[in-house]
Amino acid sequence: MPSPSEVLAPRVTAAIAAAFGAEYPELRDADPVLRPSQFADLQVNAPLALAKKVRMPPREVAAQILAHLDLDGIAEPVEISGRLIQSNRMLELRADPGSIRRLEKRE
Q: Suppose 68 and one of 15, 22, 28, 29 were both cysteines; which one would form an S-S bond, judging by CB atoms 3.0 to 4.6 Å apart?
């Protein structure tokens, strides 16, 4: 069975490409910078990594990624959280392992 990171990484990368790929072609294969989180199953640190490049605050980058993120059937609702690091905003993914198993069976 794939790990939550293996399932979510390509979807986050696709969301980054959809959000910023037209203006920044080099971001079409951007690393989603998935990391374990003490508040969720995973957190996406890409907004922090991309903020300077796209000249937007990390929270706005996270909102753009979230607007294009397809997690249908594999993750709980996603939230942009500012409580992880006081001055930074990260996109959290709360993965449901049962949903990931269902996704694996469908593909």
A: 15
